[in-house]
Write a structure and sequence with these properties.
Blueprint: H1 3-6, H2 9-12, H3 20-23, E1 29-30, H4 58-68, E2 75-78, H5 80-92, E3 99-102, H6 109-116, E4 120-123, H7 134-139, E5 146-150, H8 162-171, E6 177-181, E7 203-208, E8 221-224, H9 227-236, H10 244-253, H11 256-281, E9 286-289, E10 296-301, H12 304-313, E11 316-317, E12 319-320, E13 330-334, H13 338-349
Parallel strand pairs: 1-11, 3-4, 3-5, 5-6, 6-7
Antiparallel strand pairs: 2-8, 7-8, 9-10, 10-13, 12-13
Helix pairs in contact: 4-10, 5-6, 5-9
């Protein structure tokens, strides 16, 4: 047997998730990964680096529970929200037997994680309004164990309708878990659905420090759910998922001063988003601007390929979504600070 033959069939057929760093590119303005535009200093105490870390660092769990408005027993920390997504699948889905449901176009790791785990995928595309097709999803609940919804949705920026979600949660009671990915919720905190966890034990919410907290490099995410769900996930998670330096930085970021800094940063980026949307609307090469609830804006151009090439030549790296269903000529622009946004606009003004 070759090494390839030794691999699981699902892995042999797998196309890896094309993350921003995996795709790569050359430039000096990086606006393709929805990262924060600058890093912030943190202090690390090396005194315990010779010891294995806590599986679930108490100070981090308590701080995030306080921030999110839940009990510590309803929080699980993981290596980014990506690990949280995979943990849900590994914990609740039998390989070769169960399926998850996704609503494309949406975040690609839901499908990749399912495929990696040998779990099937049911696709129910978003409606033209870019809302989930609630009636179709409910009709497929007998076929799936987990439904993944992204709110704000990546890449379209839309929020999941609260009334539709509640109706789905009720229909899915004792049938399926509903996972709401809130990676970008800090940019529209009023839209969070975490409060619904108290009413619906089949609701799971995933979060991250990668976006608004400007900590993509430490890979720290959270799952918020009922104590029973968290207990099941805790059986499956790796023994030491949160390195001690990560825990120290996360605790500092979740302190009162860290939260204040995050909120200030969100305010600045949301202001930049309002400005660039107004500028984009006046450009002849722009045909549609999608919803903007995250730290990015998806834009449809009259000639997306030409725009992407012009940006690349100018050293500006964006994310092309033109191959995704319903997103022809659409390019996602991460919101950076003013000089980065000005660089984008300067290129677009020269395109007719």
């Amino acid at each position: 047997m070759s090494i390839k033959d030794l691999a699981r069939r699902a892995v042999r057929a797998l196309t890896p998730y094309q993350s921003a760093r995996r795709i790569g590119g050359k430039g000096n303005v990086w606006l393709n990964a929805n990262e924060a535009p600058i890093a912030y200093p943190f202090t690390i105490d090396p005194a315990r680096l010779n010891r294995y870390p806590e599986c679930q660092p108490p100070q981090v769990i308590a701080a995030y529970a306080g921030y999110a408005g839940v009990q510590p027993e309803q929080v699980l920390a993981s290596r980014g929200a990506d690990e949280a997504i995979e943990l849900v699948i590994r914990t609740f889905c039998e390989a070769g037997q169960d399926q998850v449901l996704i609503c494309p176009p949406t975040y690609g790791m839901y499908a990749i994680s399912a495929e990696t785990c040998g779990v099937g995928i049911v696709e129910v595309p978003l409606k033209p309004s870019r809302q989930p097709d609630w009636s179709e999803i409910k009709s497929r609940l007998s076929d799936v164990k987990v439904v993944f919804l992204c709110s704000p949705n990546n890449p379209t920026g839309d929020l999941v309708g609260r009334d539709g979600l509640i109706n789905l949660l009720e229909a899915a009671t004792d049938r399926a878990l509903i996972v709401v990915d809130e990676a970008y919720i800090e940019f529209c905190p009023e839209a969070s659905v975490v409060d619904l966890i108290a009413r619906y034990p089949n609701l799971v919410v995933t979060r991250t420090l990668s976006k608004a907290f400007a900590l993509a490099g430490i890979r720290c995410g959270f799952t918020l759910a009922s104590q029973e769900v968290i207990g099941m996930l805790a059986k499956v998670i790796a023994p030491y998922p949160i390195p001690d330096p990560v825990a120290q930085i996360a605790a500092e970021a979740l302190s009162p001063s860290g939260l204040s800094l995050m909120q200030e940063r969100v305010g600045e980026l949301n202001a930049q988003k309002v400005r660039i949307k107004a500028e984009l609307q006046a450009l002849p090469c722009v045909t549609e601007i999608f919803e903007d609830k995250g730290n990015f804006v998806l834009v449809r151009f009259s000639d997306g390929e030409r725009v992407f090439a012009a940006m690349k030549q100018a050293g500006i790296i964006l994310r092309d979504f033109s191959s995704k269903p319903g997103l022809a000529d659409a390019i996602r622009i991460t919101i950076g600070y003013q000089d980065e946004m000005d660089a984008v606009l300067n290129v677009l003004r020269d395109i007719r």
